[in-house]
Amino acid sequence: MDSHFRQIACVLINHLAIKVEENKNPDLIDEDVIIYVNDRHGKTTVFDYSSSIRNIFIGMDLSQALSICPEAITLEADFNEYNKLFDAVLLKLSKKVERIENVSLGKAYFDLTGYAESFGGESRLIANILDAIPSFFGSRLGISDNKFFAYCAAILSDSGRAMKVTEENINCIYKLPIKTLINDSELLRDLNLFGISTIGKFLTLSKNAISSRFGFDGIKAWDIVNGAGFDPVRLNRLNDNVSEQACFPYESSSQEMFYAVLDSLVEKLCASPVVRGRYISTFRISCEIPEYATWEKEIVLTPPSNNAIAAVAALRRNLGDISLPGLVERMIVTASGLVGEHGIQSEAFLDINEEENGKNNRHLIAEQYLENKLNSYQDVCKIVDVNHKHPLPEMRFIQIPINPYSKHIVKAMNIPKLINVKEIAGTPVCLVISSRKKVNVSVHDEWKVDLWWMRNPAIRSYYRLTTEEGVCMTVFKDMKENRWYIQHY
Predict the structure, then answer these.
(1) Which of 50, 254, 388, 480 is the most buried (most CB within 10 A)?
(2) How far is residue 377's CA from residue 208's CA, in Å, rounded to a whole number?
């Protein structure tokens, strides 16, 4: 480490949305709070939640979250306010330090090199930075000579305090889990097989041993934790980037789900007023994964592009056969480095653009027709197969609006609905539609699903039923909740 010559800081604000709401209403501070987002189709999902709540995740259906934490207070998310407040924090910090890299909502890096003397010493510099961040955020500040060590220091620091990692206390990061350093799921699995669960255990291996056992990715991780190389803070021009985000309908590490959501977010970015008529130089993709460090990837486009099809093709080429380190809750895609013109032909994609634009125009006409006919807004969606062999029907397909201006991003299909069932010895015999209407049924097939290993285990008994009128349907009993559901697929 050469911390005498270089100072990088990382600021972390965990559960930013919750903290904003608690600041507005102090009565919420000691309560369990769930912040939700409600789309125009009536689907309500979790956006953020109090750190005291367990066993729920971002993107979970609100009704399911409330069945786990029934006494929680629910609030609707205010995305504009959350982003505005964090942007205001960065803008205030930009008055003190010039080079700031906005990574995601609640996380940023900045270069402090050479600033200590002008502030009258390092202690006063740190105090000035912490003072620039409202105390209710409970921000954590980490300082070191590179991004990774600064990030580790921020994780280890106390709320509202700063921690510095130097040569003298570098061993403090050794107790952090190895997933703080490594995102690759296959490499993590291999390391766990060797009993390597922390950064400290990883460093007990020699570079040659890591090279022979874990290859290039292992060496790359070894170089990072040993301070080899330097990843500079990339200057973000404030208010010169734009982000789109989407909660996955359920936690998933599926490559198909990843690319389906990524494609949709890139299309929305390219259609946004900020980008329209300009060209995107850089995309940053961030995936929030429970109990893991945020997975991030920054991709520079050469040449810059303002065309969604060309941008998606370039991102897919760069990412390739991607392997995620865990189950993703939410994806955030940020477009930055916006320029007013491009230098190399974008006409290479002209033919496909015309074809796709024609399709999209037909879909938009269909949307307008449906809206006029039904007197309500209707998205025209494409159906994406993310895992058609999954035991749970609601995890097989998703639907994504084709219109990039739609407020909706991604929606699960085949969602089960609660139903009242009369059973005898555990077998359904009658569906209770209302107090006056009951439908007798007979069972002609049954099977069980026991996905005990999932983050939210699914243990179900499925029945294929037929009514006296010959109508077929599928119901299941959730053995954990002791509730019945009907599921159309």
Answers:
(1) 50
(2) 61
